[in-house]
Amino acid sequence: MQILIFLLFTVYTLALFLMAWVTSRKANNDTYFRGNRKSPWVVVAYGMVGASLSGVTFMSVPGDVQTTQFTYFAVVLGYILGYIAIAFLLLPLYYKLNLTSIYQFLGKRFGIEGQKTGSLLFIISRLVGSALRMYLVIFVLQIFLFDSWGIPMWATSIFMIFTIFLYTFKGGIKTVVWTDIFQTTVFLAALGATIYLIFKDMDLSLGGALSSMKISGYTKVFVTDWKAHNYFLKHLFGGMFITIAMTGLDQDMMQKNLTCKSLKDAQRNMMSFTGVLVIVNAFFLLLGGLLLVYAQQKGIDLSTMKTDQIYPYIALNHLGIVAAAFFVIGLIAAGYSSADGTFAALTTSFCFDILNMDKWTKTEKQRLVIRRLSHVLMSILFLGVILVFSNFHNDALIRILFIVAGYTYGPILGLFAFGMFTKREIKHGWLIPILAVLMPVVMFFISKYSTLLLGGYKFGFELLIINGGLMFLGLMVCSKRTSFQKR
Fold first, then answer.
1. Which among 17, 48, 4, 323 has a CA at the least distance from the CA of 189?
2. Any idea which fold 2-395 has?
3. Average pLDDT, the chain
């Protein structure tokens, strides 16, 4: 089995390099940063499914059914509201201003301090979030493949990140948009194949499987205890604002949308992608329930296993070589599709927001050198986060990611909301980065002691909303009316 997995991995990687070669011919800086604004919206929409779900969805969502049942679906329903807001509030703004980095809006609205604050928050958020997603892929491959060959995890990490670095180095976002089609197809094929093979092995119908899940208590979707961290309204509105922040205010996801030919195409992309994403998430929850029912039927002990390990353990040890092959190649596709766009997005934000490359460089050759050096730097930082986190993995990553997002994307949400919905000016630009650090710290202590201070209340995904609201209020206190308002 190990030889088969290695061969599949090799063939898959070679296929990516072939696609990168085709898409990066005659590439220039505009190709790397904006895909020359020629991407068909259907291509972007389909490819974004794989990029949005990632290896975390691939493993943490099915595994987390063991502890949270189907309650994650309330978050998915919130995604729909969030994507509608992105399509009809944020995308028109980005296209109207003809942005390359979406944080250029903050520069136009608040000055250099606002732009750099938003960009740095994004870089930190995306570095941590995407690196954790990629770490999960490396973690599983290490346990079930490379450990037996005596290859250390640091070597596996370097190889995987270097691979992504190479195939995105020249074509950037254009290469990412087209390779995501291939990776999403593989990703979804793995999901479908695993579900089919479990049904076949258990000799159960869909109705029978759902009945078994219901008896075991796995089908619960809505939690009605308002104090609980997974209360359904917290999940619904948390999912909405997570989507707005982690997609609409995220350079990685928006950079793909901004490669579409027009605003109308970008909106078509967003709404089509939303429908597919909801369906795919539902199938991942179904898979999680099936894995648990399968374990019960076959007498597989999961009591000592981390939730992130349930899917790989069953796929690689109990469902046969076909399921194992589909799982591994699907996991690799999920990891690559979420990480490759991050490299391009981090490089773009660093070049345009931190270095302000477009304002002082005079030639295309200068911009090319800066872009390539930035790409190298972001790749090294990405690898560093993976190596550091490898010593701290002890929880379902889907929860860790949303907790991190609540603290890092909250100030970005507050900045954009204040910039879009008020005309007030910040009294001193240096107050913006101070507030961006202070408000998450305040939110951390409120969350940590919420059960004591708020009568047993536990924060869930609404932490992002409250953090963004605190940032908004802080900006309001530190602002003044414009001359236009005075008149």
1. 323
2. Sodium/glucose cotransporter (1.20.1730)
3. 85
